[in-house]
Specification:
InterPro entries: DUF7834, GmrSD_N. This protein is α+β, with helices and mostly antiparallel strands. About 50% of the residues lie in helices and about 10% in strands. The chain has 21 helices and nine strands. The longest helix is centred in the middle third of the chain and has 19 residues.
Length: about 500
């Protein structure tokens, strides 16, 4: 069952925002106040011009504010917009000699010094009337769920890669086709084909966040991490890191004798034993060089591997096409096989009730697993991986972005490395079983109330999923490991093959 977490949006004056509910506050994960005195003075100048207008009924909008309503602490924590709220509070203090009511903001020493600098600068300026400050309009977005609040915060402040990064990659690799040796007509046809592939990929349904552009999601959340998170190294997926991996470090046409404008070198992996190169024909078909076998039109079947070298031009677009299709096959494609059907049931009934960062880990690991072993023993892999992620949920009420990196970095071995370096699914499953055994005490000791908070909702989802094994009266997850084994023996019989 998918839990709904309402998002409330309204337009309020600054005065109404302060009076609309519990006091505004800052949580520990927020950065400090960083506005310079010059920026404060610019705001003062803008407001002075606004106040001088003859029509006093015109509204002045000052942007959006994102709030997390925490009923337990009787506070509304500012997720995004604290710089503007602080600045308006300073202007209010300049006008009245006191801070506005309805806020419980506290700052670090460094922020306090920055605020003093701002106040000193404001003392040299004429004060803005309190009425003007109070009537400024803000778009207020308020959420109640702490997981959603952290997701919003990371997205707004330090998460991912600007959309123009993937646009730059598209432009670079289209230019690489144009600059390659070959017939001009062929290059133009390939450019058109690859541009259409990319645009079709961007229109694919989002894997995690609704409305999200598929291309940045594919590259930042999955492909970049699958390639760069190795051993204890789990670097941050910055704009520059993305361009380095998928543009600067891609191989030029002259790096391999098998490479040309329409052909990409291939490497030995699970789905390629004999072919040496892959040619993209004018009509969009794939031909394997070395045995002249035509590959199906489904790009999910392209004989590539996640961590292989990426060749510029056609090679980049085929690589992106392959993993976009594989991710869609896993999550969205209609009429899936029995193994994928079972996987989706596990995801929707257990993971959809968990935090987005944990779902990221789940999908990332599963994509790497499918790249290595297709759907062989996929449901068992999904259940054993979910057992590990569920332990994180039971241990932590607040799951932050760095949780994903820590999951790989702090383990005995990086699970992504284990999958890529394994020859048989049993090697991966045995690794997960060992980690599963180490977490038995945590499950045995949990005492979370069913349905209460994010942890309680997750616990309820687990009890519902394993209701045949646990029984309707069960209220503890201490036997989850036994339920998992029993589920594998019954519900998933016959799902282990292809």
């Amino acid at each position: 069952m998918i839990q709904e977490h309402p998002v409330r949006v309204s337009t309020l004056t600054f005065a109404d925002l302060l009076k609309a509910g519990q006091p505004l506050a800052l949580d520990s994960y927020q950065r400090g106040f960083v506005w310079s005195p010059e920026k404060l003075l610019q705001l003062t100048s803008d407001l002075a011009e606004f106040a001088a207008q003859p029509d006093k009924h015109l509204p002045y909008y000052i942007g959006a504010v994102l709030l997390h309503h925490d009923a337990c602490q009787s506070r509304r924590f500012i997720i995004d917009g604290q710089q503007r709220i602080t600045a308006l509070s300073l202007l209010y203090h300049r006008a009245t000699g006191r801070l506005p009511t309805g806020q419980a903001l506290s700052y670090s020493g460094q922020s306090a010094r920055q605020i003093r600098r701002g106040m000193q600068a404001l003392q040299q300026q004429a004060a803005i009337a309190r009425e003007v400050i109070e009537q400024l309009r803000l778009t207020v977005i308020e959420v109640d769920n702490s997981d959603l609040a952290f997701t919003f915060f990371d997205t707004q402040n330090n998460r991912g890669v600007p959309l123009q990064a993937t646009d730059l990659l598209k432009a670079y690799h289209l230019r690489a086709i144009d600059h390659a040796n070959g017939v001009g007509e062929l290059r133009a046809t390939l450019q058109k084909n690859c541009a259409e592939r990319w645009e079709a990929m961007q229109r694919l349904p989002a894997t995690l966040s609704p409305g999200q552009d598929f291309a940045p999601c594919l590259f930042t959340r999955f492909l970049w991490r699958a390639r760069r998170w190795r051993g204890t190294q789990t670097p941050t997926d910055t704009h520059e890191a993305l361009l380095s991996e998928f543009q600067i470090d891609t191989w030029h046409h002259g790096a391999d004798s098998r490479s040309s404008v329409d052909s990409v070198p291939l490497y030995a992996n699970r789905v390629n034993r004999l072919a040496t190169a892959l040619t993209l024909t004018r009509d969009g078909e794939y031909v394997l060089q070395g045995n002249q076998v035509r590959v199906s039109h489904d790009p999910a079947n392209l004989p590539m591997a996640l961590r292989q070298p990426i060749h510029e031009g056609v090679g980049f677009f085929l690589y992106a096409d392959k993993y976009a299709a594989l991710l869609q096959r896993l999550m969205n494609t209609p009429r899936p096989c029995a193994q994928v059907t079972a996987f989706r049931a596990i995801y929707h009934e257990l993971l959809r009730n968990n935090q987005e960062y944990l779902r990221e880990i789940f999908i990332l690991c599963t994509l790497v697993y499918m790249d290595q072993f297709d759907v062989e023993q996929l449901p068992e892999f999904a259940l054993r991986l979910e057992f590990l992620l569920g332990a994180i949920r039971l241990k932590q009420q607040l799951v932050r972005q760095e949780t994903a990196a820590n999951f790989f970095r702090h383990a005995e071995l990086n699970l992504l490395d284990v999958i890529v370096q394994s020859y048989h699914p049993k090697q991966v499953l045995d690794f997960l079983k060992r980690r599963q055994q180490a977490l038995l005490p945590l499950y045995a000791e949990e005492s979370i109330n069913v349905g209460k908070g994010v942890q309680g909702r997750y616990k309820r989802a687990v009890l519902t999923f394993y209701r045949e094994q646990a029984g309707s009266a069960c209220s503890s997850l201490s036997a989850k490991s036994q339920w998992l084994e029993a589920y594998l023996k019954t519900s998933l019989e016959g799902h282990d093959g292809h």
